[in-house]
Amino acid sequence: MPAKKGSGTLPGSYAVRVAPKQYLLQNKNLMWIQFSLGTDLHTVFQSYGNMPLVSISDEPDTLYRRLSVLVKGHDKAVLDSYEYFAVLAAEELGLSIEKVYEPPRKIERMTLLKSVHVYKKHRVQYEMRTYYRCLELKHLTGSTANVYLEYIQRNLPEGVAMEVKKTKIEKLPEHIQKPIWGTLPQVEETVNES
């Protein structure tokens, strides 16, 4: 079928009209996707071509001993809600949570004159309170950590900053693995007989 352009169709030549307000999308990666536009969302059908669903590589995955996620913001209620979301997401992914805690808040106060040039006794005081939440996860693989971090970063609320620290597990270098006492010359002990 040729692609129709006009009102009610999707932009570009990807959409093919099948029935009133129903379309089939053709993509190079997917074979066909069918959906309908209207008051209720219809069926979504995806048929993958020859694409592998899981990529397999011989490279070993990175291992992390600890993943520390520090979230900071000025609204305590937003941080409480986001902490609940992040812990729930970690539990659903089957990650082991080491601890969740609230570091002490930081209060920054600023005292200014009410008027710019006069009335030194009349002042106003502003303060900014920064609240923190810290979530520590332990024993993660690199792919699991990337998926979890991408998910919680995409759902990060406005006005909230995130800081992530990863503690990677690495193999000891070979020059450290060999014990140094194996390379030292042996000292002969003499026995005194009396």
UniProtKB/TrEMBL annotation:
<dbReference type="GO" id="GO:0003735">
    <property type="term" value="F:structural constituent of ribosome"/>
</dbReference>
<comment type="similarity">
    <text>Belongs to the universal ribosomal protein uS10 family.</text>
</comment>
<protein>
    <recommendedName>
        <fullName>Small ribosomal subunit protein uS10m</fullName>
    </recommendedName>
</protein>
<dbReference type="InterPro" id="IPR040055">
    <property type="entry name" value="Ribosomal_uS10m"/>
</dbReference>
<dbReference type="GO" id="GO:0006412">
    <property type="term" value="P:translation"/>
</dbReference>
<feature type="domain" description="Small ribosomal subunit protein uS10">
    <location>
        <begin position="68"/>
        <end position="165"/>
    </location>
</feature>
<dbReference type="Pfam" id="PF00338">
    <property type="entry name" value="Ribosomal_S10"/>
</dbReference>
<dbReference type="GO" id="GO:0005763">
    <property type="term" value="C:mitochondrial small ribosomal subunit"/>
</dbReference>
<dbReference type="InterPro" id="IPR036838">
    <property type="entry name" value="Ribosomal_uS10_dom_sf"/>
</dbReference>
<dbReference type="InterPro" id="IPR027486">
    <property type="entry name" value="Ribosomal_uS10_dom"/>
</dbReference>
<keyword id="KW-0687">Ribonucleoprotein</keyword>
<dbReference type="InterPro" id="IPR001848">
    <property type="entry name" value="Ribosomal_uS10"/>
</dbReference>
<keyword id="KW-0689">Ribosomal protein</keyword>
<keyword id="KW-0496">Mitochondrion</keyword>
